[in-house]
Amino acid sequence: MDATMIDWSRLQFAMTAAYHWIFVPLTLGLSIIVAIMETLYVVKKDEFWKKVSKFWMKLFAINFAVGIATGIILEFEFGTNWSNYSWFVGDIFGAPLAIEGIFAFFMESTFFAVMFFGWNKVSKRFHLASTWLTAIGAAISAFWILVANSWMQHPVGTEFNPDTVRSEMVSFWAVVSNPIAITKFFHAVFSGWMTGAVFVAGVSCWYLLKKREVKFATASIMVACLVGLSGGAATMLTGDSSGIHAAKYQPMKLAAAEGLEDGGPRAPFSIVPGIEVPAMLSILATHSIDGYVPGINDILNGYTDNAGNTELPVKEKMARGQLAIQSLKQYRETRGSDPTQAAEHLSSFRENEKFMGYGYLDKPEDVIPNVPLIFWSFRVMVGLGSFLMLLLVVLAWLAWKKKLEGCNWLQWIALLSIPLVYICGQAGWIVAEAGRQPWTIQDLLPVGVAVSSLGAAAVKTTFFIFLTVFALFLAIEISILIKAIAKGPEME
Asked: Which of 59, 237, 312, 314 lies at a CB distance of 3.0 to 4.6 Å from 364, suitable for a disulfide?
């Protein structure tokens, strides 16, 4: 397969996914914040909270509408640019995506219509229920998408069929209950709460800087900080689980994120190059100070952990993977003419099946992702996440003490932090997705085998078309958001 075609297909999908991820976290976070605000309106019977709810609901609707289109484009790209992948895992990958589209998205869109257009047309309680169901629908939608994504990180509940040359689902429950899927879901949802909180706090601080809608802005900040701090704390907990799962199922990703060349027991945690905390990585990745964490060289050359489990060198995995590919080919050639030989070839294939993906690699070093990209993306994610948590703590404290109005410097920091929360989220996805390269499906299907048989020119053309359209859409959305914010809640 042409390397240029592979690179352009990856770049196009990365660009589309990154653009889509601009909208998803804000949808997840802002929907919860709006639901809480409307709950205060119904419980307190205070028209002030209706005014607050309707304003943030308008911004939610703008973000929701633009985000839908990008998600649809992503799903089409599986068929156009990654047709071999779609053929290989269509029965597995397609199921959660179909459920998301038929059930979760339908639920989310239906109640969104009632939420946005149903003021004064349905009862207060029914409208409130619709708002909460919109938020729940958004979370359920994210769940099924992340079930599909997590299967790529840790394929479970499936079996390879040598007759159809496809992976087929044997346990839907195993796919749904994949430990990576559960962790990823809560991590994504709670980090979305952080995104919504920082967005609401930043916009509200703009009103404080303009000496406008002070009561509205302060109340919005209090609700946002409550949601953001809850989400931030939960994000840290689920991040800890993600680290343990990476150590267990994707050790190369963890080694790249730490820039760990040579691991072992009591592996150090690197804050930045040259500054390490002894044994901290072992504690984080295994919850044991003596836990074995393999480094990049250990994974390449093979290793034995503390429990006596041995991991083969990548070179040997490649040799056994090539044997699996050859045995599969011979089985398919003889299954109709010589059942005895076919059975022997099938037995040989089954012995080496789990290494089949390695048989498509050119050299052992292909299993190493872009270490500098993963290393620094992880630190951007953690650094910005910690800063934003501190920001929300300070904002909540000063708002509660009624001292925030006079802190112009902090208001500016909150406003300018809105893009930082998006950078934080994008960095997290870079670690998750680029960190598992070269695999589309971990240890099973490398990107070079997953792409479609297209010319690089076709992918380049659509890449720049999408880039132009996305940039236009983003500019339009930002313009509409700015106009709605400038108009303010008093115009509702």
From this structure: 314
